[in-house]
Amino acid sequence: MNDTLSAVLKTLNERQYQAVTHNPEIPLQILAGPGSGKTKVLTSRVAYLVQEHKLRPSDICAVTFTNKAASEMRERLNLLIGEEQTKKLRLGTFHALCARFLRQWGKTIGLTDRFTICDADESKKIITNLLKAYDGQLKARRLTLQPGEVLSSISNAKAKGLSSADLFAQAENDIHQIIAELYASYTEALKKMNALDFDDLLVYGVRLYDKEPTLAAWCQHVLVDEFQDTNSMQYRLMLQLAAIHRCVSVVGDPDQSIYGWRAADVGNISAMQKNFTDCKQIMLEHNYRSTGAILGASIAIVSQDTSRIQKSLVTDHAQGTKPALLTFAIEQTEANFIAKEIKRLVACSGGMLTWKDFAILLRFNALSRTLEAALQKESIPNRVLAGHKFFERLEIKDILAYLQLIDNPNYVPAFSRAINVPSRSIGEKTIAAVLEAAASREKSPMELLEGIYEGRYPDVKPAVKGKIREFIPLHQQLRTMATEGGAVPDLIRHIITATRYEDHLRKTQPDWDTRWENVQELINYAQQFDQDPEDIVELPSVEGEDGAQETPLRLFLQASMLSTDTESDDDRNKDTNKVVLSTCHAAKGLEWPVVFVPGVEQGIFPFYRNDDVAEERRLLYVACTRAQAFLYVSYCSKRMTAGEIKDRTISDFISKIPADQKKVFDKAAPIVGPKCIEEVAKVLRRDPPDTDIVEKATKEFGSFAPPRENLLDPNANMYKNTIRGPGSHLAFSSSQPATFQPARMAGIASIANPYPTPSSSQPPPPSQSQIQPQTPHPLMAWASNKPKSSSGPKKFRPMPSSSQPPAGATATLSTFQSTSIDSLKAMKNLGAAETAGSPDMVALGRGAGTKRLGMGFSSGGYKPPSKRAKQE
DNA sequence: ACTTTACCCGTTTTT
DNA sequence: CGGGTAAAGT
Ligand SMILES: Nc1ncnc2c1ncn2[C@@H]1O[C@H](COP(=O)(O)OP(=O)(O)OP(=O)(O)O)[C@@H](O)[C@H]1O
């Protein structure tokens, strides 16, 4: 065993070590909560199998949930067992692995090795076309059917291993029947164009091993990460891979199953115990990621799932800063707070925290808009981690279409796109004619077109011959280049030169410059696929058949379809010091020092169209458990939805937390100072920053909190006059006008603001000089108490209880002040000048009180929000 | 075949 | 509000 591995083994706790070194012959399930080191254990186990049990890396199959997770594991293994060994591993997602298997052995079940992977967009287009035939029928019966609906039904069926015939047999109504029919014709269409969709990769993978189980003979050990989110096809595949050697290790956490909508089935955990009766279970109960407070709040959320099995999970870290539960008037306010708060934490941590340490996790991508704008306004570098958006852009699809066509001239989606880029006046009609002619001659569309070009075939009815004088030679040149082993970047360069693609973009796209940059980025991305063919470790060939070639072009195209982002190895190190915006789903398995979860409102969390509320709750749990040191959960009382500003209420997942656990959240932004930062450093295992710097930043940021008008967007006049009057603590009941400050106000704002006036109207903002440097108490007496039940209807009031004085007490100024005075005394005793964030915080780097910034007047150089890339 | 304009609809999550 | 589409016009 090498030193690196033994060093890592030493860091493991006893259970983890037991899991890593567990007898490979005995199937293993590692079931454990978030941050317990499951992935670390799985990775170490792979290394251990190679180094200690002398398994050949090429005989090990390690399955991750995402490509990203695969690269991460690959990177870690590079360190543990070296690149030489790591690159031989069969490591990837189920989909990527199946693609490999099918390229190699697809002939066994009648596939060619040249199949193209059809992405969801193209699938949808195919369905849309097929659906047209049913227009009349649907209208006559007053039914509607969306392509997306059809697609997800088909996808669901495939994930469960159901054929179109199965679906047809169990159809209960017309819609079901039509869907089943569409499923059949869709399958046929894909077959004709020699394409597989994502689900097909699994379906055919399973079919392959069904037909020829011995093809799994190479597989000495299967390891599966995120096992709770495998669907039944994936599970079958795992069984098939393990069928011969019966060596399986999986890790998972039922509480983190969030892909039920994609037919994932937690039941696979118990299924596995039945399939492998000798299966050993190991539970890990130590959390190494988060502070006690974050873990406590997360568990309080997930524990509301009554059907859930309680399990123990404790952290070795300190209790740390309580997660904040904040409320805002509207999404822009929420976003602005988050932006400013990020700056505050960066400053107050003395630079220990940088942009990349922050993540904003959202229920769905559309929510990122406001956040992006707010971050940009504050000049905070950020990136949206969103699916394989990059490959869905029109300029990228254009280039890919040319490349796909080289490899698979039958692939109609690529054909229909490439043939008219740049515009050659070939429209729907002409394309249809070509396709029809091709079909009747049993040729690929490209072959037919070449025939027409060379005069071997007659032209089609809307004449095309004259329009393809450049297209056909280009295609032929590319084909030659590719056959002669031309590198992918060269192919792309040839495409853009021959088509004068830059000019084309300039002529047709208003934002052609960014698009052109994307094309360059694609070339850059393609670079990594020009590896030495020697490096590719082929799977064993079937006797008498040549193993199919995994050409650089095919590898590139495959990766383009399967991968979620363009982040290549080079990219990862440079230019990624950015705040991450991501969906909660995509955040699975990741971790950040600071996590914001905005939009924790009914309708968003749980999402209003999702019946599986428990899964939504788990999703929130997953999001919260990504945080290491700071967690902010927030919601708005109003939000723009469907073009209208609608009232919102806090998520049940928060409001239904039992009273005795309510204190898991602080209804105010945390207090940050040298002591706190020192603790954070421990949690993150980083060197604490210079105390002087922290203290200085702390003073600048925390010595005052400007009046809350500062939060107002000067453009959002409609709210200007709605700042509430006396009943401030009731202001959030939905019938009231919007208010601005987060719950903190009752404490901090009133301390800092010499005119806290919970009465009548708001006085004019005081001048800066009037603002007294004050520090709030870290433990504000009522900040964590739930409202007295007697004071309201059973329904939880959206108004954060922190702003609400105990029932019976009058919400007077003196109540607030006496507490703040106490707090000051306490502070002195502690000798710590901790500061609290307030949403009204001024921008970073300005001396306290020198400048008050309204929104839109950021100091950091205002950049207009970037145009969102239009797709397709 | 392509461009412009006027509605309409309504926000998932991903390999 | 903004994207996507159906109908109109060039
Ligand atoms: N024994 C250990 N000592 C120190 N740090 C550890 C140990 N085990 C795990 N960690 C750290 O804890 C963090 C979480 O580990 P990991 O991602 O493997 O957990 P996980 O169980 O896979 O989490 P999740 O379920 O959220 O995906 C990582 O930063 C990892 O380095």
Automatic annotation (TrEMBL):
GO terms for biological process: recombinational repair. CDD domains: DEXQc_UvrD (cd17932), SF1_C_UvrD (cd18807). Residues 11-291 form the UvrD-like helicase ATP-binding domain. Residues 292-589 form the UvrD-like helicase C-terminal domain. Gene3D superfamilies: 1.10.10.160, P-loop containing nucleotide triphosphate hydrolases, PCRA, domain 4. It is an enzyme of class 5 (isomerase). Residues 750-815, 832-872 are annotated as: Disordered. Residues 800-815 have a biased composition (Polar residues). Residues 768-793 have a biased composition (Low complexity). Keywords: ATP-binding, DNA damage, DNA repair, DNA-binding, Helicase, Hydrolase, Isomerase, Nucleotide-binding. It catalyses: ATP + H2O = ADP + phosphate + H(+); Couples ATP hydrolysis with the unwinding of duplex DNA by translocating in the 3'-5' direction. Its EC number is 5.6.2.4. GO terms for cellular component: nucleus. SUPFAM superfamilies: P-loop containing nucleoside triphosphate hydrolases (SSF52540). ATP binds at residues 32-39. GO terms for molecular function: 3'-5' DNA helicase activity; ATP binding; DNA binding; hydrolase activity. PROSITE patterns: UVRD_HELICASE_ATP_BIND, UVRD_HELICASE_CTER. Residues 755-767 have a biased composition (Pro residues). It comes from the Eukaryota. Belongs to the helicase family. UvrD subfamily. PANTHER family: ATP-DEPENDENT DNA HELICASE SRS2, UVRD / RECB / PCRA DNA HELICASE FAMILY MEMBER. This is DNA 3'-5' helicase. It comes from Sistotremastrum suecicum HHB10207 ss-3. The lineage of its organism: Eukaryota, Fungi, Dikarya, Basidiomycota, Agaricomycotina.
